Amino acid sequence: MKLATRSLGLALGLLALATLACNRRAEAEAHEKESPATASTAAASPPPKKPEKTASHTPPEKKSMPAPSDVAAPPSDAAKTASGLASKVIKAGTGKERPGPVDKVTVHYTGWTKDGKMFDSSVSRGKPATFGLNQVIKGWTEGLQLMVVGETRRFWIPGPLAYGDTPMGGRPSGQLTFDVELLEFKAAPKVPADVAAPPATAKKTASGLAYLEVKKGNASGKSPTASSSVKVHYSGWTKDGKMFDSSEDGEPVSFPLDQVIKGWTEGVQLMKEGSRFRFWIPGSLAYGDEPNPMRPGAPFGQLTFEVELLSVEN
Questions:
Q1: Residue 312, pLDDT score
Q2: Class of domain 79-186
């Protein structure tokens, strides 16, 4: 949606939609270059910022990590799930909890094709990767949920749970083998109990926007106008409770209110700095009521957002 800017770059209709996704999309694409396990997902995102000037440099040479002796196929003592994912604990972890399907994780990993060719490694780059478990290939979404912090696990991921069995776009195909160390994870915001529909206590505007004040704002706080720029934290869910975007696991986002979806432009003006609102935004005020073939995977229909207005910037 041009929505929350970061996730709401869809705001000005389909055009805004595309804009929204720009920022997140740029981040996602940059991340995909670092982590082939990251699958492209259509989430909304804020208006793109001007790129900062950086000194030109030569990227460090990727060091090759030797393939494990069982890279070609899982050994007999590997555990296997109903989906066909095989795994084996290489190093036990110290954590007690396991990440959920939309939690944000930080990992070190190395990936090989079944013939032992390394195609990517955060270890060789010397920089861990961080991503949401709903933003990666199916084998990672499922597999990381089996792990605890501190654990290193080897995964043998069949093509259907990775990038498919047919080579495409330079990505590795067929069974892939990964060694993954779970360094930490952050739990995603909980799905509101009333995500599917506004409760009787919610207020409704003439446009069809429903809202509820979850936390009162500062008595002296400002309310934005349609032309204001604001800084917020937010999370967004489809009406079936699936979270499609959130800033809560990172930095807040800033954006002009006239560059987001209509539901945000209208709704955030009802807020005061420091307040937290829950919005039920009909498709007509968001990204439409039907899937957009130009943006496969983008949310549609009624969307529910929780937004905290941190500041009005102008």
A1: 96
A2: alpha beta
